[in-house]
Amino acid sequence: MKKTVIIIALSILSLASISAVMSFSGVGDREEERYEEEYESEAHEYGLFRGGWLESRADVRPVRDETYLSECGDCHFAYQPGLLPQRAWERIMESLDEHYGDDASLDETQAAKIRAYLLDNAADRADLSRSRAFATELETGDALPRITNTNYFRREHYEIPERFVQGNTEVGSFSNCEACHRSADTGVYNEHQVVIPGVGKWDD
Ligand code: HEC
Ligand code: HEC
């Protein structure tokens, strides 16, 4: 991965200097255009273009909906829709008045808007593979579904001792994704970027 990044960076640098020299020495506009096109398509391919770089590294699509961010990101991290399948979001939106022991009721218009946003972008509709891993059906009985209860989540976190989570005042619960995943709000959950507060960088 690192090697690819360096190669891409070097080739972009060399493309840039070639085109700089060309424009300096008065090589025709057409040549320059060609390099410009090549640069653009390459950058596109690697997701380097127009902020796409970050998005291409994301495990789930970052939240873009302002209503969702303000209404569902107040008490806790605004979990990306791509972290649960449609059925789970439907259940959560049906019982906002009894929301994991809290009252998270919304007026009808806002609730409908947020529901639509969640369903449109849910894990079982997502295009990123990490998101699809969260889409597996989860049996929770009468209890509300949780991201932290999905098989995929458990598989990824079972090695982390309780003292780093429940026994850690700076984390408290696995539901606080952003406590350990410092780039969680950008949709990046890469295991190499995990820093557990008071413990340090995760290295397994
Ligand atoms: C009034 C505060 C409050 C608001 C507003 C709120 N929540 Fe929550 N939410 C909670 C609490 C408390 C929990 C349980 C956290 C825990 O167990 O650590 C929770 C848990 C969750 C979980 C489960 C996380 C896990 O453990 O996997 C999801 C999903 C969730 N909320 C989604 C939403 C959505 C969607 C909205 C907006 C419609 C919302 N929340 C608004 C308080 C709130
Ligand atoms: C106590 C710290 C902590 C919290 C809180 C936490 N995680 Fe993690 N997470 C980790 C660690 C450590 C790993 C790497 C585990 C391993 O590979 O051994 C990980 C791995 C992951 C992975 C796999 C990444 C990869 O590159 O394979 C995903 C996805 C993920 N977490 C999502 C979440 C989400 C979503 C939440 C919140 C609902 C969350 N995590 C909460 C520590 C945490």
Q: Give the amount of beta strand, in percent.
A: under 5%
- Order of helix and strand elements from N to C terminus: HHHHHHHHHEE
The strand line-up of the biggest sheet is 1-2
What is the number of helices? 9
For the largest beta-sheet, the strand count, sense and barrel status come to: 2 strands, antiparallel
Low-confidence runs of at least 5 consecutive residues: 18-28, 38-55
Taken together, the total number of domains comes to 2
Strands, count: 2
Question: How far apart are the termini?
Answer: 19 Å
Write the layout of secondary structure elements.
Blueprint: H1 2-24, H2 29-45, H3 52-57, H4 66-72, H5 86-94, H6 108-120, H7 129-133, H8 151-157, H9 177-180, E1 195-196, E2 200-201
Antiparallel strand pairs: 1-2
Helix pairs in contact: 1-2, 5-6
Can you walk me through this structure?
This protein is mainly alpha-helical. The chain folds into 2 domains: 2-57; 66-201, no CATH class. The protein is built from 9 helices and 2 strands. It has helices at residues 2-24, 29-45, 52-57, 66-72, 86-94, 108-120, 129-133, 151-157, 177-180, and strands at 195-196, 200-201. The protein has a two-stranded antiparallel ribbon with strand order 1-2. The chain is globular. Mean pLDDT is 80; it is low at 18-28 and 38-55. The structure holds heme C (HEC) (2 copies). Residues 71-72, 74-76, 79, 92, 96, 99-100, 102, 104, 114, 146-148, 173, 175 line the site of one heme C. One heme C binds next to helix 4.
What's a concise summary of this model?
It is built from 9 helices and 2 strands.
Which descriptors apply to this entry?
2 strands, 204 residues, two-stranded antiparallel sheet, mainly alpha, binds heme C
